[in-house]
Amino acid sequence: MKIIYYSIVTVLLLSFTGCKKFLDINQDPNNPTKVQESLILSPVELYTTTQIAAGYPSVTTAYWTQQLALNQESPNIDTYRITPTDVNNTWSFDLYPAIFYNLRTLISNADQKGSTAYSGVGKVLLAYNLAVCTDLWGDIPYSQAFQALNGTKPIYDSQESIYKVIQSTLDDAIAKLSSTSSGKAIGSDDFIYGGNLGAWKKFAYTLKARYYLRLSKAAGYSAATQADLALAALQNGFASNADNASITYVGTAKAENPWYQNTLPGAGGVVLSSYLVNILKANNDPRLPVLANQGSGSNYIGRTSGTAAATDPTIYATVGTFYGGYIDGNDSGSAAPVFLATYAEALFIKAEATLYKSGAAAATPIYNSAIGAHMDMLKVAAADKATYLAAHATLDATTPLKTIIGEKYIADFLSLEVYNDWRRTGYPALSVVQNAFKPYIPQRFPYPSQEITSNPQPQQSIATSTKVWWAN
Q: Is this entry keyworded Ribonucleoprotein (predicted)?
């Protein structure tokens, strides 16, 4: 997506010029010291969906949670081979300069102008991406991170403190989005909600619930308390699929959905994992034809990660066009959406929180509604939905959380939340793949080599087998 890429780099370079001090003389109009908020918002939103929600972090964790597989010989990222060099771009280009720096610039400029709409939206996006960063690495630099431009070697903030920043940032965002004096209105530069501040508030509240429940197993935190907080936030969160936070790509050349690009022939052999496909087939799940494109013999065949390349002409199932996957002769996936959060996820959060507070009986109807919401989003036929729900209407009597997260695993297809839920709850019960490069599924990303070289910290020696704070 070179058009999007160049526009983002342009904003990045322009916003960095704001750090320079110039003499008080005539300014070059072609090199402004400040960039309008509207010119920052669009590229940062696209960066968030293209490089994060459907970029390297999501592709990698989809392999590790066995939703996707690589049709390649081991070792590779599919079999847990990940190095500090592999994550350089995500940290050193995507998250810190392109997203965090530009969002901080957007928010600062908006606050100076009294533009509460832009400030509020910027804070929601900042909280979302900050959570992605700390969830992947644990402790990260933030409070001093942007002093690095002045030569400071920033300290690493604890993950617990980052989570407090995330919640306070979302609280600030909600206050800004609720302001009656919102300043300059947001419009077509907002690719997610088109300037609908009410929708952004629902998104902020839904994220609050997501991050409250993330700490349900964290040391010193109570699952019941976190459930209460999540349920309170959800009262103002998503109320239907119309509230889903997503960007739908244009689909024209160089502006295709990133999952379309990820699954093009020659993109590395990205196919569906046999683990996911077998679950869907065993359950007679009507979502299978939507989540997947057929392979050999008009059948759905998933690849078992870590196995040798097939010697027969097997064609494995691939990502369905609804989510952007490529299928030969059909480019509809190129114009598909990338989701940041959905109503179905919100209902699964509510079901889990209700389970902690009131038990399985109270959680069951919400769990059913969550499955139904995802099927509605996929436009599954009403009769097929009813048949599936009738067969999967109850929670496991012994381990009801297993049932909730098992269905959420499908509804959050290709989302980073699948990896977060697995680390937090242990569900689904994944096994190490065959011929694994490491004898464990990584619990975190390694710190990037560029960061290790330029800003050495004790945390950087933590092994990828070590759980992040909230998963302990």
A: no
pLDDT band at 183 (very low <50, low <70, confident <90, very high): confident
Q: Residue 385: enclosing H or E segment and its boundaries?
A: helix 382-391
Q: Which of 346, 100, 340 is nearest to 205 (CA)?
A: 346
Q: CB-based contacts of 24: which residues, under 8 Å, 6+ apart?
A: none
Of 130, 258, 249, 127, nearest in space to 200 by CA: 127
Asked if 94 and 52 count as a contact pair (C-beta separation under 8 A), the reply is yes
Distances in Å between the alpha carbon of 232 and those of 166, 198, 220, 469? 17, 17, 21, 24
Helix (H, G, I), strand (E, B) or coil at 181: coil
Whether the CB-CB separation of 463 and 444 falls below 8 Å is answered with no
| Alpha-carbon dihedral sign for residues 323, 324, 326, 332 | positive
Are 148 and 456 in contact by the 8 Å Cβ rule? The answer is no
The string of DSSP letters for 268-317 reads: S-EEEBHHHHHHHHHTT-TTHHHHEE--GGG----B-TTSPPPSS-----
| 361 touches 370 (CB < 8 A) | no
Determine what percent of the chain is predicted with pLDDT higher than 70: 92
Residues in the chain: 472
Count of beta carbons in the 10 Å neighbourhood of residue 122: 28
Rounded distance between C-alpha atoms, residue 441 and residue 272, angstroms: 18
Statement: residue 310 has pLDDT above 70? no
**What pLDDT shows up at residue 18?**
35
First to last CA, the chain: 39
Handedness of CA 8, 127, 199, 210 (dihedral sign): positive
